[in-house]
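Bench log. Compound arrived from synthesis this morning; before running ITC I wanted a structural hypothesis for how flavin-adenine dinucleotide sits in the protein. Inputs:
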Amino acid sequence: MNGPSKPVFLLVGEDRAGLGALRRALQRRLGADYQILAETEAERGLSVLRQLRERGEQVAVVIADQRMQRMTMEQFLERTHELHPLARRALLAEAFDYPAEQAISHAMALGRADMILVRPWDPADHWLYPRISFLLDSWVQATEQPGVCAVRIIAQPGAPYAHELRDRLHRNAIPFQWFPPDTRQGRQLLEQAGQDGTQLPVCVYFDGQVQVAPTVRQIAEALGLRCRPDARHYDVTVIGAGPAGLSAALSSASEGLATHRTENVEASALFILAGAEPRTGWLPGTLARDEDGFLLTGPDLAPAGGLPARWTMPRSPLPLETSVPTVFAAGDVRHGSTKRVAAAVGEGACAVQSVHRHFQQLADAQQVARRT
Ligand SMILES: Cc1cc2nc3c(=O)[nH]c(=O)nc-3n(C[C@H](O)[C@H](O)[C@H](O)COP(=O)(O)OP(=O)(O)OC[C@H]3O[C@@H](n4cnc5c(N)ncnc54)[C@H](O)[C@@H]3O)c2cc1C
């Protein structure tokens, strides 16, 4: 284990021939960037991990045979995790050994292992290397390795906003690095940004911009992301993410409509509204409501028959359509709804059917207009 500290792959297994083959396969692909180490006993593997920890070396991946003589797989995984909490852990099992696969799946469900690798792995380009790449990708993300970085964030890892911020950045595939303010790099970055660290997070962007305690929206703007949806890109906007809203969004997207789901009210195309409490105070006065604030839709808009008052379309309101044409309401927010999850889900899907009918009627009308 001489030489500079390239991150380590540690392989542990009692089958010497199998271990050797795996080591050679990994060495061929990853040898330039990683040290590939192998041990034939679990205890010796743990001893190597202890030495690496003492020397401050990084362990990227530990691959261990699921069968061990002197300790259980669980014990080995637990000790590995104690020594190198961020190392990814994969377990090797024979192909079609279903009891072994079940035991590994159990370990994965409990967060003790990250992956099953099956032997034999030929062809390696299908069975081995893509899985190893997946493990490495997850390790790189977890350890925030230096590299292309859009924003460096100086903040305590356990700050109340930390989870949401990381989650949003991950979900938008924004490469970032996180530095606690009491680390050398954190202090250095704060100094460069002219900050004393009393207000966090401090964000230092790839182009030199600095923001102090920004909102998520301000971060998105600094990264040049679009924060306001462009109504021209969407056929349907769904407001609300309860059962009705999610069902509507799912139906709409799966049926080929360009769908935008929002938790705010800035969009201006077709709306489908959803909500357990009516909470309809923000709506424009033009949307007809009952005395409790629930939205009137379809036939409820004109109980005596005919078209509703101030209705601007030549057709009658479609099922679930509100008093403003092309604005639909589904779920608890609607007057007369059943106030159950299943009913809300059903209404969300039905509202999308009405949207299709509206588009179809528009297309038919345009065709007629072209002919005349
Ligand atoms: C305590 C309780 C227990 C219940 N138990 C059951 C049960 O056991 N079985 C059952 O079937 N039903 C149950 N229900 C009813 C069920 O929860 C509702 O019928 C169902 O959630 C309705 O779904 P929805 O999508 O219409 O509304 P909601 O679930 O209320 O979702 C509306 C969503 O819209 C969002 N929203 C509201 N206003 C805006 C706005 N202006 N902009 C953006 N977003 C907005 C809200 O934040 C929310 O996420 C229960 C309800 C309650 C309150």
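What the model suggests: Confidence is low (pLDDT under 50) at residues 265-269. The longest helix spans residues 341-371.
ITC booked for Thursday regardless.
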